Amino acid sequence: MNRTEKSVRVPDLQAKKTRGEKLTVLTAYDATMARLLDSAGLDILLVGDSLGMVVLGYDTTLNVTMDDMVRHTQAVRRGASRALVVADLPFLSYQISEEEAMRNAGRLIQEGHAGAVKLEGGASVTHIVHRLVSAGIPVMGHLGLTPQSFHQLGGFRRQATEPDQQELLLADAQALQEAGVFAVVLECIPDALARRVTEALAVPTIGIGSGPYCDGQVLVIHDVLGLSGAATPPFVKRYANLSETVVEAASAFAEDVKVGKFPPPRK
Q: What residues act catalytically?
């Protein structure tokens, strides 16, 4: 990918939905991976708070701090020149007050150099969305399985499986749109519901574990590359198995060192 190519902006995503073109999104947490994914032509690089689990080794996303998010967003921004960089607002960074949400979202934009932020929740967070958007900060919504509500939801499992839950999720999606989000992530909900929400909204939907009917798809890069081990979700398609490659390369290096094959002598 030519790094001089026009950068992806928020209006470009809406234009793609209008034209019926699918949006492509992967997570990124460092400059090296961001550079590679940017070269692959992704529309969005999501600096997800999933970094707590796949990079920092936590069991959930709840331990991720604003400092973590700012640091990793900076790294991704340094590696990417074309894709839109979207950064997650971590747990308790926006729920306390509108002022706190403004301060933290502002850090991701000013210090992290993100192009937009993402937050979880429906109607209960629309006042925050409206405040951020009014200040010129693009906001992406997130409904369905919301990892920051891990304890309340009872773990990582499919959401909105009952009719009343589905009506509530649709209402939440519409409320987020009215508040000004430019897109909505739909995580682990039934395919038919994802299709219904996608058809009801003017803004793009981005699915993860929610079937083929969304306007785009997002996956965690570690899952895509086979770096997550047995923890890979069942809806993921693994496009490579880099775990084996890394282990084989590291083992070969260790063996070469032990038997004296590396480094070779120099004259």
A: 187
